[in-house]
């Protein structure tokens, strides 16, 4: 999709705002159990490559996820694991074709976004291959103008909620001001970080999940359709 700009009254042009979307457990529901499949593959990788028992592999996986936001960052930092080999045996090995299917409702929502006012952009902690694979299976890959992903080939690995990941996303999406950034993610930590940076953030807490005692961000939603209510300026039609 070609980039466009919004004309201001004085004849100057202003860059469009950017609406960033997380991918996993955000563009598809947790009920797909993708995370469960991924966690099992990660635990298996820890056990096989580090020579750990199943229990110790699960413990270390959780510790690295808690400390770094990604299990792979702990593996690279402490065990000199090849991150692209890890990606091939974990993310790219997921049987997504039998789990994630086209979502017409999501497509209609995204098609109703006025792209003369806002740019749709993906922001994920996954590697590029996984991110592209998921949105293609959902049938929405043509609706986004770009993808900012966690580049496993670059050391140190930078991912959300590190501030450098948000700076990378802004640069790649071509937006300079934090107030022009809008973001939806299911991760509490990622939403807290983006809100602190001045992004207008919506924390997606699916139906059935406990609402956090302290909100992560300005907005909290149960379903992506609620974006019509919190960001009405970006939609062609009202809900």
Itemize the secondary structure elements and their pairings.
Layout: E1 5-7, E2 13-15, E3 17-21, H1 34-50, H2 54-68, H3 71-79, H4 83-89, H5 104-111, E4 118-123, H6 128-138, E5 146-148, H7 163-173, E6 181-185, H8 188-196, E7 200-204, E8 219-221, H9 227-230
Parallel strand pairs: 3-4, 3-6, 4-5, 6-7, 7-8
Antiparallel strand pairs: 1-2
Physical arrangement of strands within the biggest beta sheet: 5-4-3-6-7-8
Number of helices: 9
DSSP, total strands: 8
> What is the rounded Rg?
18 Å
Structural class: alpha/beta
**Percent helix:** 25-40%
Mean residue pLDDT: 92
Order of helices and strands: EEEHHHHHEHEHEHEEH
Q: How does the overall form come out from the CA principal axes?
A: globular
Spans with pLDDT under 50 lasting ≥5 residues? Answer: 1-12
Largest sheet, in brief, is: 6 strands, parallel
Percentage of residues in strands:
5-15%
> What gap, in angstroms, lies between the N and C termini?
26 Å
Structure description:
With 239 residues, the protein is an alpha/beta fold. The chain is built from nine helices and eight strands. It has helices at residues 34-50, 54-68, 71-79, 83-89, 104-111, 128-138, 163-173, 188-196, 227-230; strands spanning 5-7, 13-15, 17-21, 118-123, 146-148, 181-185, 200-204, 219-221. A six-stranded parallel β-sheet has the order 5-4-3-6-7-8, with helices on both faces. Strands 1-2 form a two-stranded antiparallel ribbon. β6, α8 (188-196) and β7 form a beta-alpha-beta unit. α1 (34-50) packs across α2 (54-68) and α2 (54-68) packs across α3 (71-79). The longest helix has 17 residues, at 34-50.
């Amino acid at each position: 999709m070609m980039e466009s700009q919004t004309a201001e009254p004085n004849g100057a042009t202003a860059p469009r705002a950017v609406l960033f979307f997380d991918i996993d457990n955000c563009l598809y529901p947790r009920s797909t159990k993708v995370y469960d499949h991924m966690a099992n593959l990660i635990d298996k990788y820890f056990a096989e490559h580090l020579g750990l028992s199943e229990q110790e592999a699960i413990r270390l996986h959780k510790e690295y996820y808690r400390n770094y936001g990604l299990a792979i960052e702990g593996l690279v930092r402490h065990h000199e694991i090849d991150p692209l080999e890890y990606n091939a045996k974990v993310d790219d090995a997921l049987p997504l074709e039998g789990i994630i299917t086209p979502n017409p409702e999501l497509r209609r929502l995204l098609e109703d976004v006025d792209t003369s006012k806002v740019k749709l952009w993906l922001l994920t902690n996954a590697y590029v291959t996984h991110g592209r694979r998921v949105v293609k299976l959902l049938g929405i890959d043509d609706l986004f103008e770009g993808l900012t992903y966690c580049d496993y080939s670059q050391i140190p690995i930078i991912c959300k909620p590190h501030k450098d990941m948000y700076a990378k996303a802004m640069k790649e999406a071509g937006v300079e001001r934090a107030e022009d950034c809008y973001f939806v993610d299911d991760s509490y930590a990622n939403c807290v970080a983006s809100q602190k940076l001045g992004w207008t953030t919506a924390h997606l807490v699916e139906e059935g999940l406990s609402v956090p005692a302290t909100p992560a961000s300005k907005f909290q939603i149960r379903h992506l359709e609620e974006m019509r209510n919190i960001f009405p300026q970006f939609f062609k039609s009202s809900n």
